[in-house]
Amino acid sequence: MIFAQQLSRVFGQGENAVHALRDVSLRIAENEFVAIMGSSGSGKSTLMNILGCLDTPSSGSYQLDNQVIGQLDDIKLSAMRNRHIGFIFQSFHLLPRLTAAQNVALPLRYTDTEPLEALARANLLLEQVGLAHRAGHKPHEMSGGQRQRVAIARALINKPKVIFADEPTGNLDSKTSKEIMLLLGELHSQGNTIVMVTHEDEIAAYAHRVIRMRDGQIIEDNGC
Fold it and tell me: What is the span of the domain harbouring residue 125?
């Protein structure tokens, strides 16, 4: 599913250059549940941004589902993200003026899916994450855990090959965090590949493989 070889990412130039990633190589197979851990500045978020096709490496190569990402132009890269990748963010990234169902259906605006079909699919996913009764509510009318469930449903709307979750429980209390992680575990059991960034050991424990980073490098990988 994911094959990265000697990825490096440098921000800035000369004396001000910051080496966020240093020759990182890894493989992630289909239907793995992987947690990437590290302190602030370890490179974990930079790595996720590259794997999620939100950023490009300064050097090295990356393949997602046998497609060499570096060979894609911006239009094809955007299509790759929309077709194969689902994102879950710490801050939810929901549009405040849209209902839960409209937020979930949003990625389908960039496809040829009819609006009524898009909303029907969104409602089915909201039912799957236990929020059918909140389909017509806007984000400010929901709790943090409910908003994150909406974000998870949105990540699934295009039936992605891999879900990237960036600190998915970072803004949630411990009880709600457990509920969200159990939901991610259910999605994994249904065949989804999940790559999650976290700094919490108790959250990483839900994953089946843990990769630890420091100073832009992988220092431990219990899947190897």
Answer: 31-53+84-221
> For residue 67, is it within any domain?
no
**Domain annotation covers residue 45:** yes
Read off the pTM: 0.89
* Residue 137 structure tokens: 């509510």
The closest alpha carbon to 196, from 56, 38, 62, 1, belongs to: 38
Q: Is the dihedral of CA 61, 27, 47, 6 positive or negative?
A: negative
- Say if 173 falls within a structural domain: yes
Q: Is the pLDDT of residue 33 over 90?
A: yes
Q: Do residues 169 and 177 touch, judged by C-beta distance below 8 A? A: yes
The total number of structural domains in the chain stands at 1
Would you state the pLDDT for residue 73? Answer: 81
- Report the CATH number at residue 176: 3.40.50.300
Beta-bridge partner residues of 26: 4
Confidence of residue 224 (pLDDT cuts 50, 70, 90): low
Instruction: Taking residues 72-82, report their average pLDDT.
Output: 82
